[in-house]
Amino acid sequence: MQLLAQRRVALVARSAAQRAAIAAALQPAIRKLAAADRVLEALRAHPFVAGIAAAALGFLGPRRLLGWAARALPLYSLLRRSR
């Protein structure tokens, strides 16, 4: 029984070290992952807008849609600041 307890302690320590190594390796990507998480959360909260965006992507194509978005973003931020 004592051998099992010692083995368990060793495995718990090993898994803690592995979790720490994974967290250290992912540290540079945490900001990007958080931004992607916010975008996905917004899409889940507004499925109609997500559907419109998907339809626009299919209709216009990614290159033209990106150009439109680049022109619309300053307007959107200006409107948002004016509130």
What does this 3D model show about the protein?
This protein has helices at residues 2-26, 30-45, 47-60, 62-82. Helix 3 packs across helix 4. The mean pLDDT is 88. The protein contains four helices and no strands.
Number of domains: 2
Helix content: over 70%
Query: Quick one: biggest sheet?
Result: none
Structural class: mainly alpha
Q: Name the shape in a single word.
A: elongated
Number of strands: 0
Residue runs with pLDDT of under 50 for 5 or more positions: none
Summarize the structure.
The chain has helices at residues 2-26, 30-45, 47-60, 62-82. It is an all-alpha fold and 83 residues long. It starts with a helix and ends with a helix.
Features:
single chain, about 80 residues, mainly alpha, 4 helices, elongated
Topology:
Blueprint: H1 2-26, H2 30-45, H3 47-60, H4 62-82
